[in-house]
Amino acid sequence: PKNDVMVSFGLWKVTKSTCAETVYQAIKAGYRLLDGAGDYGNEKEAGEGVRRAIQEGIVKREELFITSKLWNTFHAREHVKPITKKQLGLWGIDYFDLFLVHFPIALQYVDPDHRYPPEWFDDNGRVQLQNTPLQETWGAMEELVDEGYAKNIGLSNCNGSLILDVLRYAR
């Protein structure tokens, strides 16, 4: 029977050097929900652990619930899909089970070829805000579901008033 309650294995602070083995061992131990994010900087390695577990027959992709998050520098509509595809490529998967807006704070775009993950600060150590409304970001997130890149979307690190605002225009 399908269990409706899953215990998540969080990937924040898991180092690149240990991530592939850590994810593999977590899956081997029974974890099926992996909580990652572009900002964690270990997506490629997490994906290697997932691939190994799948190749060894420990789990099928459909049995995993993989969560990732859209970083603040990619909130503009034109950046949401390209960075999501990049993140999926790093994981080596076709879709996220859950893709979240990591923080409701739009920062100035940083090209992933320049720095990935881009983190909070620009090249001069300053936080550069960008005027991208959350409604624009949310609309682009809904398109990810339409196109099969994410099965579910959501918000992270938001207060109740922001969630109520998004509910006004969410499909």
List the helices and strands and how they pair.
Elements: E1 8-10, H1 16-28, E2 33-35, H2 43-55, E3 65-70, H3 77-91, E4 98-101, H4 134-146, E5 153-155, H5 160-169
Parallel strand pairs: 1-2, 2-3, 3-4, 4-5
Termini separation comes to 31 Å
Largest pleated sheet: 5 strands, parallel
The number of E-state strands comes to 5
Main sheet: strand order = 1-2-3-4-5
- Strand-residue proportion: 5-15%
What is the H/E order? EHEHEHEHEH
How many helix segments? 5
The amount of helix comes to: 25-40%
- The rough form would be described as globular
Based on CA atoms alone, the radius of gyration comes out at 16 Å
Oligomer: single chain
Low-confidence stretches: none
* Average residue pLDDT: 96
Explained architecture:
This protein is of the alpha/beta class and 171 residues long. Strands 1-2-3-4-5 form a five-stranded parallel β-sheet, with helices on one face. α1 packs parallel to α2 and α2 crosses α3. The two termini are 31 Å apart. The model has no long low-confidence stretch (mean pLDDT 96).
Summarize the structure.
The protein is an alpha/beta fold and 171 residues long.
Which key terms come to mind for this protein?
single chain; 171 residues
